[in-house]
Amino acid sequence: MSTFVIGYYALLIGASCLAAYYKKRSIFLVIFSLTLISFVMGIIGGTSALRFITIAAGLLALAAGISFAFREFLIIITPTGVAKELRTAPLTAAFGLFVIFTYAIAGIFAPIIAPFGEAQVVSSAFAPPDDTMLLGADQLGRDMFSRIIYGARNSVGLALVATALAFFVGAFFGLLAATKGGWFDQFLGRVADVIMSIPSLIFALLMLSIFGTNLAVIVVVVAVIYSPRVFRLTRAVAGNVVVMDYIEAAKLRGEGTWYLIRREILPNSTAPLIAEFGLEFCFVFLLIAGLSFLGLGIQPPTADWGSMVRENATLISFGELTPLIPAAAIALLTVSVNFVVDWMLFRSSGLKEV
Fold this sequence. Notes:
Helix 3 runs antiparallel to helix 4 (about 80-85). Helices cover about 75% and strands about 0% of the residues. The chain has 15 helices and no strands. By secondary structure, it is mainly α. The two termini are about 45 Å apart.
């Protein structure tokens, strides 16, 4: 134990001294902050706390390394213009892109990656992990790893479709309202206010209880809930564009509404709308996962991360962390998308790092 402690602190202090000597200010601050945290945690928790910090720091370093390598890979394979933008991406954005890429691969190639079918019973209920089942079995004896892989296709795919529909409807009417203005703009604005005044979860539970829980109903209900948010943002962004001189010039030339939207307003509103799509996806994804947890989302035997948390929640009482794996998959994707959205918002804002 003492050898580990001495080696641990010697490594941190030596690394911080090297960073200070070579004037790597940011690296020095990170390492020396870790040294101070380790000192306090070592006093409180002893060697076990230091081992936990070591593992956590190692995982963070691994994530940083993967993010850097993936960013360099994207820079090499993408066109020059995109590669130039990627060079300015922080490691958090690169990590988010890597996670999104991994989830996309898992969802697209789920039948190839998963060793069993999503509804195939291969063992007894709550069987422990073995050579064929990496994460064990669920309450019916289905392979948890296979269901998580298929859940990437079902959960993320449904959220993506619902987000796309909500975004298309909201952006379309937002651009139309900003272009036409007048009573049409006021009418759509009041309709959006009414829908947004209803709590989203209560509205979703009510609609799904009335119309059923098939996938088409879920997509339409979620689109109705979140399209007013997209409408308001699009209306605000487009409202700043329609007052520009080149819009007035286009109107004087006799250009119609659709020309103004396609050729003048939409190209100048793209950046914030793309960032909004990422944010809306997070909201939709969490809502669908919550509905599945309550039993009104994707129905069995289809694999879904939200329902998997509910179905295997009893394992937590026995000290098993298996139900937390689909919950962690939900959280990881949400955080990763937010990392990418933050970078895109920073780029669209026109701010520069100092």
